[in-house]
Amino acid sequence: MDAIGRQVTAFVTLSMAVGLILLMYLIFEPQRREASANEALEASAERGAHLFAENCVVCHGVTGQGIARAGFPLNTEDNQFPDEERHDFLYKTIAQGRNNSTGNLPNMPAFLLDNGGPLNAQMIEDIVNFIGYGDWSAVPRIVTQELGTPIAAIPPPPDLGTPIPRGPAPAAGGPGSEEPGAKVFAAHCITCHRISPEFPSGGGVGPNLTGIAIRGKIPTSIKDDPSAVSTDVAGLTRWIRNPQDIHPGTAMPGFTQEQISEADMEQLVTWLLKHNTPPEPRRRR
User: Fold this and answer.
1) Considering the entire predicted model, what is its pTM?
2) Which of 61, 192, 49 has its CA nearest to residue 130?
3) Total domain count for the chain?
4) How confident is the model at residue 170 (pLDDT cuts 50, 70, 90)?
């Protein structure tokens, strides 16, 4: 092969290599960008969880359930994976604050530094990303473990006259929902359990705990369970800490001291044992 032929071969080979590289780039670059964007969103949401724990739980609750006349529920379906319009609404509300229906008192103060608040624009973006994409169960852990505040010790919110919307907004809370033990229940138990009169709209995965103090034994879901323990301070505490030890195979998860501190456990159990009125019987249709 003469010199020109070798040059042509080299050029063709190089061109094919460059073309292959460009093809691989076109194939994998969108995936790389998407993965990078997802990682950035996840990191932002994690930062937002910490910022929410530090700035928002007093009025909105540690699981975003909302607190009557203080803060709207945020852990709602319309806030999950928000579109651009919803994202902008959440950002603007946090940055600029919000007036209630009377237009006189603020439902919440402005949080953007330029508006006199404590947070910069990226911090607010992180909170919005947490509300839309984050893990709400992380907030109670951050509050208790990293900030060192028992759930029951979170101060009561100011009454800013926030109108709670109609409908089954989760656990806005009835009478007594601001007691220390009720706050612990709202943080850790409400996803699976309901209890009246405070949280009649809690989850239905686990048993209705209304009247738990007069049930005698735990668990109550299996009749004549020989492993059941008494419904008292020791029994409830043992059940909440390690239900598998009492009834292997139960769907009830255990809660370690890192998840529910001893102080919070005491408040929770004491509060549960106040519920000695049985639930109303179901009406036949």
Assistant:
1) 0.61
2) 49
3) 2
4) very low
Check whether residue 141 and residue 239 sit in a common domain: no
CB neighbourhood size of 149 (10 A): 18
pLDDT at 75 over 80: yes
The strand pair at 106-108 and 98-99 is best described as: antiparallel
**Residues 273, 160: contact at Cβ < 8 Å?**
no
The answer to whether the beta carbons of residues 172 and 67 sit under 8 Å apart is yes
186 band by pLDDT with thresholds 50, 70 and 90? confident
Domain that residue 237 falls in: 180-272
CA distances from 234 to 39, 50, 175 (A): 44, 33, 26
Q: How confident is the model at residue 50 (pLDDT cuts 50, 70, 90)?
A: very high
| Cα 193 to chain centroid, rounded | 15
**243 belongs to a structural domain:** yes
Angle between helices 180-188 and 262-272 (to 10 degrees): 100
The residues facing 26 across adjacent strands are none
User: What average pLDDT does the structure give for the chain?
Assistant: 81
Supply the pLDDT for residue 176: 61
Question: Measured between alpha carbons, how far is 60 from 74 in angstroms, rounded to an integer?
Answer: 7
In a domain, 282, yes or no: no
- Based on the domain organization, do 149 and 187 belong to the same domain? no
**196: CATH:** 2.60.40.420
Burial class (CB in 10 A: 0-12, 13-18, 19+), 196: middle
Residues 95 and 192 in one domain: no
Tell me, yes or no, whether 171 lies in a domain.
no
Q: Are 198 and 175 in contact (CB under 8 A)?
A: yes
Closest by alpha carbon to 177, among 203, 155, 199?
199
